[in-house]
Design goal:
With 699 residues, the protein is an alpha+beta fold. The chain contains 19 helices and 26 strands. α9 (300-314) links the parallel β13 (289-296) and β14 (324-325). The termini are far apart.
């Protein structure tokens, strides 16, 4: 959408059951914040909303774990998350919460509108129920074996191993994570959103209209969902925590959290409008509003399939884009709360931000690194060494160094004032640098408009790099030695420092969305007010007036010392070591005793892997050809994250050979390979301790 009248920016509502880690920060909040700051600098009408997602079963469960009430849990984490975002300079226009009465009213009215219009269906179904905990079970609280990849890290909503979305019915050997009991089925009536009815709309809207402007991974996932057939989704559930279903016959039921949470964006906007004497309506209903959702990839289906259907039915606008990020790993492994392999925002705030006066520069260091490694197109990795390198070799050595040299030399050679520019003395380097400032502005703007935040940041740092190179070529400190014999050489010095100062002013403007604290320091050094930071000023080389006196130099960034990253690495290892054996709730309970006849039904053989290749568009799957002596079978296995195809040729493995064939990504899999999973979630082959003939039986 070109030149919309207004923007509504949303960042995924964080779930109020615990602190959030830097992966979340990199995935949704930093990119959204950069974009909102950029739009504000353009003086656009923009509202950036977020808030805590406070419903769903996980909240009462967390309360049970912490021995307190659900209300106490959400109050605690709402407060904590809001503070963490503020400490890391994420500048929402409003940070709301879904437990607020305004949200309950809004979500309730939304449901009523859809129900009255006949857009919802009711169905009596049998739902999983934990007879021990006496509670219906949320999808998420049923664990079992994934029917697609056979991983045991599969939940009733999604497989954590292959990413496939699941329903609890599809899980093999389901257990309740509340008590470890085997769930039973119990009858209950619920309201459903029939997504299948909207398939044509979704297909046209996403696959035709947004095929090129949305990120390929987002379009790809949507296509997968649509092609897989859209099922009706229950919008209500049996639970005593959430937004009450506003119908007398629905006593004791609440809105499903996935239904109420995105409506949280609307109620947040309403609250913001109330506080600012504005009308919220055009932000959600006027076609000239550009709605952009910033999320992580696990949220794509909700923001690209389900919520848009709700928005369409409710008479709201649809998102113009949904820039979704992939995942951020930590030091070579997936971030995990249960294994304590993570870096919470709070950890960084405690260890770095709070220890420094104001902490602005270390906040910008984290924002810088997380943007530089942003998982925009593929999973990426946070390493402390990488953090140190980014800070020391870019922020300190390039950006900080350029500004510092400029200020020191300007004070030494130009009396602390902005020197004049002498056009008659301008040379090719001056012209090239002027052009660089102009073209960088264009590049940064284009990347930001396309949600390419890493590229935009590269361009900003590159401009500082050009500044350093320019100064190196002009060598004003050498020219200064000739001044006594050649007083007119001052003009060359003036030109150099004039341009370096104008370049610094441009760095303040262009860097502001990414590094707001650094820009604040630069404005202080330049003695300018915020108005200079308007985006339209970028590219200009007359931002600082000639003769204006500037402040004494001040370092923008400090170095990150080796000892600091060593401390962090040790802490991470210690956290991992201290993680107790996973709570019983995390592991499938022991299975019931079986008779030999049951076991004898399973046919197990030793096979040799003779060919292996990656399955297209499935990160986790390998297509294997396994020699079983009398035959060679195709087996699709969810081990691609653990083994490279070339490394497993010739390996002997244990195969379940009489498992019914199953299609995965269009490939028929004839059998299953047994894997052992260690504490860290890594998979290992199970094989004979010395080589045997392929096809040998196991009993
Ligand atoms: Zn799976």
């Amino acid at each position: 959408m070109q030149n919309p009248k207004r923007y509504l920016i949303t960042a995924a509502l964080p779930y109020a059951n615990g602190l959030k880690h830097v992966g979340h920060l990199a995935g949704a909040y930093i990119p959204a914040d950069i974009y909102a700051r950029y739009l504000r600098a353009q003086e656009r009408d923009v509202v950036f909303v977020c808030g805590s997602d406070e419903h769903g079963t996980a909240i009462p469960i967390q309360a049970r774990k912490e021995g307190t009430t659900a209300q106490a849990i959400i109050d605690k984490y709402h407060e904590a998350m809001q503070q963490d975002f503020a400490d890391l300079a994420i500048q929402f226009d409003i940070y709301h919460r879904t437990s607020a009465p305004l949200h309950h009213e809004t979500a309730s009215a939304f449901f009523t509108q859809l129900e009255k219009a006949g857009e919802l269906e009711t169905k009596e179904t049998e739902q999983f129920y934990d007879p021990e905990a006496q509670s219906f079970l949320a999808d998420r609280y049923i664990k079992g074996i994934c029917p697609a990849c056979q991983s045991d890290r599969a939940y009733g909503d999604q497989c954590e191993s292959c990413g496939r979305s699941l329903s609890p019915e599809e899980l093999l050997r389901p257990v309740s994570t509340l008590s470890g009991a085997t769930p039973i089925k119990k009858k209950t009536t619920h309201w459903y959103l029939p997504l299948g009815k909207h398939e044509d709309f979704l297909r046209k809207w996403i696959l035709e209209t947004h095929e090129t402007d949305w990120r390929p991974a987002v379009v790809g996932q949507c296509k997968g969902w649509i092609d897989g057939g859209l099922q009706s989704r229950a919008v209500t559930r049996d639970l005593d925590w959430g937004v009450q279903v506003p119908l007398p016959q629905a006593n004791g039921k609440v809105l499903y959290v996935w239904f109420d949470a995105p409506i949280g964006y609307i109620s947040a906007t309403k609250q913001w409008a109330k506080e600012h004497g504005k009308d919220w309506d055009p932000y959600w209903k006027d076609a000239e509003t550009k709605l952009v959702h910033f999320i992580g990839k696990d949220n794509i289906v909700f923001h690209c399939i389900i919520f848009p259907v709700m928005l369409k039915l409710g008479g709201y606008i649809l998102p113009d884009n949904v820039p979704s990020n992939e995942f951020l790993n930590l030091e070579g492994d997936k971030m995990s709360t249960s294994r304590n392999w993570k870096l919470d925002m709070r950890d960084y705030i405690d260890d770095f931000v709070k220890k420094e006066n104001g902490g602005g520069q270390v906040v910008d260091m984290l924002r810088y690194y997380l943007t530089q490694i942003a998982p925009e197109t593929k999973d990426s990795e946070f390493t402390w060494k990488g953090f140190q390198d980014a800070v020391n070799s870019e922020l300190v050595a390039v950006l900080g160094n350029f500004v510092n040299r400029t200020w020191v030399l300007m004070h030494k050679l130009c009396k602390g004032k902005v020197p004049p520019f002498h056009p008659a003395r301008a040379d090719e380097y001056d012209r090239a640098l002027t052009e660089q400032i102009r073209s960088t502005t264009e590049t940064v703007t284009q990347h930001l408009e396309r949600y390419q935040f890493r590229e935009a940041l590269f361009a900003v740092i590159d401009l500082a790099r050009h500044g350093n190179q320019y100064m190196q070529r002009k060598e004003p400190w050498i020219v200064a030695k000739r001044l006594e014999q050649e007083p007119e050489a001052q003009q060359a010095i003036d030109n150099c420092l004039h341009l370096c100062l104008q370049l610094s002013a441009n760095l303040a403007i262009l860097g502001n969305p990414f590094l707001p604290n650094t820009t604040k320091t630069l404005c202080h050094l330049m003695k300018v007010v915020d108005r200079m930071l308007e985006w339209k000023n970028a590219g200009r080389i007359d931002l600082l007036k000639v003769g204006y006196s500037l402040r004494e130099p001040q370092l923008l960034f400090r170095k990150i010392e080796d000892t600091e990253i060593e401390t962090q690495l040790e802490k991470l290892k210690a956290n991992l070591m201290s993680t107790e054996t996973p709570a019983p709730a995390e592991q499938p309970a022991a299975k019931p005793t079986i008779q030999f006849d049951d076991f004898a039904k399973v046919e197990l053989k030793v096979g040799t892997i003779v060919a292996a290749e990656k399955v297209e568009k499935a990160d986790k799957l390998l297509k294997l050809s396994v020699d079983l002596g009398s035959e060679t079978r195709t087996i699709v296995s969810g081990i691609a994250m653990h083994y490279a195809p070339q490394d497993i040729l010739g390996k002997q493995v244990t195969v379940v050979t009489n498992l019914a064939p199953r299609k995965m990504r269009g490939i028929e899999s004839n059998g299953m390979i047994l894997m052992a999973e260690d504490r860290s979630g890594k998979l290992h082959f199970v094989h004979p301790d010395s080589s045997v003939e392929p096809g040998s039986g196991i009993s």
